Amino acid sequence: MTLDLDGPDPLYEQIANVLAARIADGTYPPRRRIPSEADLVAEFGVSRPTARAAVQLLVDRGLVRTVRGKGSYVVDSPQA
Predict the structure, then answer these.
(1) Where residue 1 falls among pLDDT bands split at 50, 70, 90?
(2) Angle at CA 28, nearest 5°, toward 25 and 33?
(3) How far apart are CA 70 and CA 16, in angstroms?
(4) CATH class of residue range 11-74
(5) Which of 18, 29, 50, 78 is the Cys-Cys partner for 46 at CB 3.0 to 4.6 Å?
């Protein structure tokens, strides 16, 4: 997946949308970790704060929860 660097949507939002689609299609199943910030930085070629903002957006959407020292996990039943 390539990001639209010239488009109007922020990079973190684009990354969050990609991750949300992967959660929806089962690539990242419930109660399993999503890629770490470092992995997102490597995959998408963005800065760590951008990767962190993408994960935080997923938390805000109710799709993942972050466990300090362990990572971010897909929730059992995502909120609508």
Answers:
(1) low
(2) 165
(3) 20
(4) mainly alpha
(5) 50
Is the distance from CB of 64 to CB of 55 less than 8 angstroms?
yes
Asked if 17 contacts 2 with a C-beta cutoff of 8 angstroms, the reply is no
**Residue 43: both structure tokens together:** 């995959």
28-55 burial, b for 16+ CB within 10 Å, e for fewer?
beeeeebbebeebbeebebeeebbbbbb
Give the angle 20-5-72 at the CA atoms, nearest 5°. 30
Neighbours of 12 (CB within 10 A): 21
> Side-chain half-sphere of 68: how many Cα atoms within 13 Å?
0
Tokens at residue 77, please? Answer: 């039943």
Q: What is the C-alpha to C-alpha distance for residues 69 and 13, in angstroms, rounded to an integer?
A: 24
CB neighbours of residue 78 within 10 Å: 15
